[in-house]
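Exercise 3.2. Students should predict the tertiary structure of the chain below and write it as structure tokens, then compare their answer with the key that follows.

Predict this chain's 3D structure.
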Amino acid sequence: MTTSRVRKLPATDDVELGYYHVSSQLLARAFVANGYPVEWLNKNTFIADVRGHDVGFSVTRGPCVSTFASHVTTRKDFTHTFLARAGLEVANGRAFPADKHARARAYAEKLGWPVVVKPSHGSAGRGITLEVRAETFEDAWASATERDGSVMVESYFPGAEARFVVVGDRCVAAAGKRPPSVVGDGTSTLAELVEAKNALRRSNPLYEKRPIKLTEARIEALARRGFPLDHVLATNV
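Answer key:
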């Protein structure tokens, strides 16, 4: 009889940030810093020994997050329904199959421009286009359907965006989310500043796979505000 040996993965502090999933590794580092040993199962998943009890995490999802909750929160159409049922105010909107483009556009016109177009299933803001207008709807729709066969169309509301961490029934942390931005140097065009910012992001393990993308919707929005891609921003603007 032969026995197989499971390859032991490196300890959390023995590797650079980014060797494991960045969010997982930051969480594991916090456990280690507080005296709780950690063992990695794969690049996303680890077990922390908390006073003799094994507590597992997959990325940032721990044992208190049910499979059902994980499923609902990655489906924006489901989340929309659950929040509304809980009595919270939600934006007017609905989901459309990817082959119902004309119906979705008619619905957007009924809501009134601008709108938000996003894949029904997904995370980390991928495929989402804000402040979509009639002339940018096609590009926004294409971006959303690249990631999912169902697309949400909602009313757009300007304002601050934030993400919240809730443990039990208590909010323990919040993080503000800022839209992509660059700072002028008086000589570089807007397009060159974006490329320089992306080069900087490539050196960060969290953002290296999340470059600023100059989509048609963003290019149109910038031009509408007087900032075409060949515009040279003044220093510190």
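Discussion points: Residues 22-33 form the longest helix (12 residues). Residues 146 and 155 are 21 Å apart (CA to CA).
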